[in-house]
Write a structure and sequence with these properties.
The complex is a heterodimer of chains A (about 140) and B (about 475).
Chain A lengths: L10 E5 L4 E7 L2 H16 L9 E8 L3 H19 L1 E11 L3 E10 L13 E2 L5 E5 L2 E9 L1
Antiparallel strand pairs in A: 1-2, 2-8, 3-5, 4-5, 6-8, 7-8
Helix pairs in contact in A: 1-2
Chain B lengths: L5 E4 L2 E4 L9 E4 L2 H7 L4 H8 L9 E8 L6 E8 L4 E2 L11 E10 H4 L3 H11 L14 H10 L1 H6 L5 H5 L17 H8 L11 E10 L2 H7 L5 E8 L2 H21 L12 E2 L3 H36 L3 H4 L2 E7 L1 E10 L2 E10 L2 E2 L18 E4 L7 E6 L1 H6 L3 E2 L9 H8 L4 H7 L3 E4 L2 H6 L8 H11 L2 E14 L1
Parallel strand pairs in B: 3-4, 18-19
Antiparallel strand pairs in B: 1-2, 2-3, 4-5, 5-13, 6-10, 7-9, 7-11, 8-9, 8-19, 12-13, 14-17, 15-16, 16-19
The chains are: A alpha+beta (about 140), B alpha+beta (about 475).
Chain lengths: ~140, ~475
Amino acid sequence: MNAEHKTPEWLTFVDHTADAGIAVEAPDLARLFERAAYGMFSVITDLVAARATETSRISVEASDRVALLVRWLSELNYRHVTEHRIFSKFEVLALSEHHLEAEVSGEIFNPARHTIFTEIKAVTFHDLQLKRDDRGWKAQIIFDL
Amino acid sequence: MDYDIRKLTDYLWELPKTGGMRVPARIYATEEMMAQILGDKAPQQAANVAHLPGIVTASLAMPDIHWGYGFPIGGVAAFDLEEGVISPGGVGYDINCGVRLMASRLTRGQVEPRLRELVNQLFRDVPTGVGAAGALTVPVDELRRVVERGAHWAVEHGYATETDLAHIEEHGCIAGVDPAEVSPRAWQRGREQLGTLGSGNHFLEVGYVAEIYDMEAARVLGLQLDEITVIIHCGSRGFGYQVCDDYLGVMDSAVKKYHITLPDRQLACAPIDSPEGRRYLGAMRCAVNYAFANRQVIAHHTRKAFEKALSISTAEIGLRTVYEVAHNIAKFETHVVDGREKRLCVHRKGATRAFAPGREEVPPEYRAIGQPVLIPGDMGRYSYVLTGTEKAMRDTFGSTCHGAGRAMSRVKARRAAAGRNILREMEEKGIIIRGQSRRTVDEEISEAYKDVSNVVDACALAGISRKVAQLRPIGCIKG
């Protein structure tokens, strides 16, 4: 319970009164989407205990890139809640302005090994940031807990 | 932030109508609380709500006001049924999040020797539903009946008694549901979560009546000093979160369709009497009933856990529902506006209905004292029982506060709890806590919350509710 996963340098937890958020950085957009997913599951659980034993495919569509990021994370949260899966590995296979195709790996929730910190009610558009600078891509996402 | 705030009374402040505001924004708070409130964006959010079409009298905020998605938490806004709008952001993600208070025939002395067993039993029998499945897996067809019947469904399935229903807001079932407007995702999210607490600030607490301020009201509610109580705080779980999420998207398009000008996109809304407005209302009410059923099933498991842990009969335990309130909801109600009765759509987001004595919505046995209101505090201090007043009917559409509100973010709370053993600290105070994870407990430490007694006192001094009793915790389970 106490051994928490070391947070990668590209992920920071954002302070927000009643809720929680993450900020992620990546060299390219595909990696950013992968890291945002990893960041979201770091809010949900301690990924140190998570194994990536099963892989499935996810495909999401949205009206623009920002909405696509929210849809992608919402889809993963939905699968986590309804299929009781902990996802810990994400590989974006195809990414455009409106469409994302990815392979996600994880395992079925096991209360003996996994600690759930919180549920995420929703991935919100509040203060959502997705931008590029000379060092790469950055995103900030606030979750409603 | 810099606000043009005016003091109306010692407990009421106003942001005057400026720019696109249709009415002023009014905040209930003491001068001391105001200093802290003005440091936040929440007053601006209350002013933003005042821009919405058809808003009546004022955009109101209770003393526990703090930032929320679009509408502030602690916000109350009433809309004209013809010209007004309905907004998912004015209800919140956790539709019909609410609080049930139960009281028993047991005293502290009878329970404390077996308190640890009781809290452990509750933690086993009342699932948090976090990570794994809940107590019940309900097929979607059956879930349809749950959302049509609310807590009545629980009676039909042996989870409740008729007397429970009489003491729930709306008798545990709101009319006007439309299951056809609920998305497949919401049904899926709701399927395995009936009878579960959830995470975040949701909890089940065992406590006792520590102080009585209004002897007559306490007598009517059957509350006696030292008597063991239970508070259940949770809502409509994934079902409601998904309904809100789905309709934020619908409303985003509706804003464009109906040419509604908003100061903040998160206030997305639709005319009450529009296809989008009606669809949201139909789906939102399904979530309202899901939450009523959810709390009722939890109440049932609570009764069973008391029996098992204490080896005392149901009758001797006598765990009865004192009252249950909703604090995230939009409802059609009749209020007097400019001397005339008017049907309004009242949004309460982190605010509680607090109807006055005499109102027909108050159960007959409580009608002389007014509607009971339950205000939970943090896990280490106290909670309050209040009643509604005539002044609340006149000034706040029969509404009052809903809780303490956070003083620290979750990250700050974890930092404050670092290196401490919060469970042991609480045990030293006589409170046994069981949580899904250490992090959950750390994030919910007492000092992460404002002192709820300040919030309650501000409401009492402003006259929008009356203090009846204070409850103190001895055990708590958290998701």
